[in-house]
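hi support,

uploading two proteins for the ticket. first:
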Amino acid sequence: MQRHRFSVSALLKRAALAAALIACAGAAHAEWPERSVRIIVPYGPGGAVDVATRKMAQMLAARTGQSFVVENKPGATGTIGANQAARAAADGYTLVANDTTYSLLPYIFKNLPFDPAQDLRPVSAFVFAPMGLAVRADSPYKTLDDLLSQARKQPGVVTYGSGGPGTTPHFAAEALAIATGVKFMHVPFKGAAEATQAVLGKVIDFQFASTTGIMGPVQGGQLRLLAVSGAGRLAVLPDVPTFAEAGVPDFGVMNWTGLWAPKGTPQPVLDRLQRDIAAVMSTAEMREFATRMGAEPRAADAQEFARILQDSGAMWGNVARKIGFDAR
C-alpha cells in the first residue's frame, strides 16, 4: 500500500489557502451592497407598504452608499411580487416588502406559487402602525358609534373599501364586524390608494388602513379617523380615540412593514441588512417620520419578526374561519 506523505510546510500552505478562501468569502459578504438593491413592493404606489418602504430605501441608500430601488409589482394580494422575489437570485440584491397581509396568504389561497414559510426569509420588521377607520371629512358618521349604529339598522348597507379580498384592511374590517355584531358591505379595489380615493369621492363610506398610508389626507383635513387600534392615542392625533375608548375593547389589529429575502441569501448579508435597518430606525429622521405617520419607530430582528408572523397568522386564521372566507 502506497503511503502519502505530507510535509509540515505543505500542510501549512493548505491551511493558509483555506483561511484565505474563507476570508475572501467573508469579505465579499461584508462588502454588500456593491451595486443597486431592488426592493419589490407587491402593491400599487401610495399605500402604507409603499410609503414606509420608500422611506426605508432612501435611508438605506444614504447609509450604504448604494441605491435601493423600489419596484411596484401589484396583483393577486401581493403574491405576484412576492413570487418574483422568491424566484430571484439569493444574493441580497432582491428583497420584497410586505405587511401583515403576508401572514394572511395561507388562508386566502389554496395553492400558492411559492411557500411563504420556506421560500422567503424574514429579515426585519419596522414602522409598526395602528390600523385606523377613516371616513371623509364631511361624512355623516362623526363617531364610531354613529357608523356602527347605522350598520346595525341596515345590515350590509354601510360600505368599506380595501385593496382586495384577503388584504389586511379587508380582514381588519371583518374583524371589527365580528367584534361588534354588524355586517358591512365590502367593495374591493386594486390597491389601498384607490380605496382612499373612493372614500374621498363618496363612492364608499369608510376605509380601514394603516395610519402610515393615510396620514397625509388625515392631516390635510380630507379624511377623518373615527378610531385607531393600539393601547393609546396617537401623539400626532390626540383627539382620535382608540377602539377601546370608542367601545370596542381588545381590537388589537396592528400593521407593520417588513423585508424578506430569498431563501439561501448568505447569512452575513442578512445580518448586515438587519443591522442597517435597526440603525436607520434609531435615527432622528426615521423616528420623526414614523411618529409623524402615527407609527411606532422601532425595528424587530429576524427572530422577533418570525414570532410576529406566527401570531399574526393565528389571528387572521381565526377571522378567516369565522367569516367563512373561501380560499381561491
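and the second one:
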Amino acid sequence: MSLNIPNLLTLLRALGVPLFLYLFLILEEPVASFIVITIGAITDYFDGKLARALNQTSDFGAKFDPAVDRLYIGAVIIAFAIKEYLPWWLVIAIISRDLILLLVVISQRLRNIAYVEVTFLGKAATFNLLYAFPFLLLEDLPIVGIWCYRVGWAFAIWGLCLYFYTGIQYFIKGVKQPKSKE
C-alpha cells in the first residue's frame, strides 16, 4: 500500500464504516452517525482531488477508493434497512448490482484484460448516494427534518438512477471487452 495523503483519507473513510455502524445501530445516535458519514462523503471527494493535485495517484489508490466506496455504501444501506430508513428490496437491488459487477471484474481478471475505468457518471452516482445518506439520518429533527428528508431522497433518486445506469454500462463494456495483447 502506498501511504500517501489520498490513500490515508480513503483509509480514514474505511475506518469510519465500523464507527458509523456502532453509532447508528448500537448507540442509536443519528446526529453522530450523520457526522461520521458526512466526513466519509467529504473524504471521498477530496482523496481523488488531492491525488491528482499532489501527483500521488497510484494503482493501489485507484482500486482501494472504489472498494471502500462499495463497503461504505453496502454498510450504510444495510444499516438503514435494519432501522427501516430504506426498503429491503432496494438494498438487495443495490447489492446485487455490485455483486454482478464483481463477477465482471473477476471475469476480466481471468481473461487477462484491463478493467473498465470508472466513468464520470459512475462517480456522480456514488457522489449522490454518499450525499443522500447523511440527509436521510436527519429526517426526525424538528423544523429542518422534512427538508433533510426531501434533499436526501432527491440525491438518492438521482444516485440510484445513475448507479443502475452505469452498472449496465460497466457490465456491457466489461463483458464485450476484447482480450488485451501481451
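thanks. also noticed: Residues 114 and 154 are 35 Å apart (CA to CA).
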